[in-house]
Amino acid sequence: MPVQLRVEYADHQRRYFPAERGWRIDAASRCIVIGRDLPRTYVPLDGVTDFTIEPTEGEHRP
To answer: Between the CA of residue 58 and those of 8, 37, 47, 55, 61, what are the distances in Å?
Structure first.
């Protein structure tokens, strides 16, 4: 099932990132790293108030 990472920021912005290739938190760089293989996406944790993994739009949980 395709999933996405929803990131909410202190200024009430919300961004969505495709996350079906996996994700992890890298404490050393203070980033959420999306993707196991290259290319990876790095989302800095500065200003992040919340993040969740959820099904993509139109997908339903079983």
So the answer is: 21, 26, 29, 8, 10
